[in-house]
Write a structure and sequence with these properties.
mainly alpha; 9 helices; Arp2/3 complex 21 kDa subunit ARPC3; about 70% helix; two-stranded antiparallel ribbon
Length: about 200
Amino acid sequence: MAETQIQKSFPAAASSFLPNSRATRAVVAVLAGSALLAASAHVSIPFFFTPVPFTLQPMAVLLLALMLEPSLAFATLVAYLAEGAAGLPVFTPQGPLGILHLMGPDGGFLLAYPFAAFLVSKLRRTLPRTFTFAALSAAAGAVVYFVCGASWLAVLIHQPMSVAFDLAVWPFVAGDALKVVLAAGIVTGYARFRSRSARSAL
């Protein structure tokens, strides 16, 4: 019964803070989501052994994907990339501004984010809405951006995929596993909170 209540309350998790108009809600979600992505990108730590910095951005991508509908999650990430390509300081501090950043070492990750977010959101709304399946959905998205990020880096540095994985994947797997768990925990924890609040209001 508790799980059923959580599943029913989850769709409201992303919408409870937004206005009633569908169009207005979509605009607010995109703007708020892109702001969250920009803030998380600036929590950035460069490492000497890889051209790809550590950031909190993957967690923000996964969190938004778990909360938003697939089309809205995709649109939010596309809007974020458009903002960055236009020269707004929304990408990591390392590297140039504008579209040149998308051609840099982490360009493959950035360009993969809309598709990873769409996949995570789609899986979240297809699978049972438990913590386990939320984490599995987020992990699937992580696989997408890791593979795309490593593929782009391999082309950029003219090295085989094994080298690209050593530079852009393996150093970050443990950290991103934690991000997957945290994103899934935040979303399912909020759904449980809303479920309890709804029951206590009856």
